[in-house]
Amino acid sequence: MEVLVVGDEVVGVLVSRVDRAHLFVENVAIAPSARGRGYGRSLLAHAQSHAADAGLGGVRLYTNAAMTENLELYRHLGYVEVDRRHVDGFDRVFFEKTVES
């Protein structure tokens, strides 16, 4: 888990794990008061760097299909949609981004 602190305030968190040959992002969360400042992008860039440094093929993640802002952000950051599935009562969209080590 990575925690992003600005000043004395925790503004974001990134939870990830190695899943076979990729880094799987389980959660990216930004405090409501800190949204819109690029902290989510920064945490995802950190995940991509971590994956590259570890020699992994890329980063994988998913989001709820109803989270349209997330869908657009991931696409804008170069993530490619690779699957859509209904899992545990939610419509999920799966993304992947290749990184170079």
UniProtKB/TrEMBL annotation:
One of its GO terms (molecular function) is acyltransferase activity, transferring groups other than amino-acyl groups. It comes from the Bacteria. PROSITE patterns: GNAT. The keyword Metal-binding does not apply. Residues 1-100 form the N-acetyltransferase domain. Keywords: Acyltransferase, Transferase. This is GNAT family N-acetyltransferase. The lineage of its organism: Bacteria, Bacillati, Actinomycetota, Actinomycetes, Mycobacteriales.
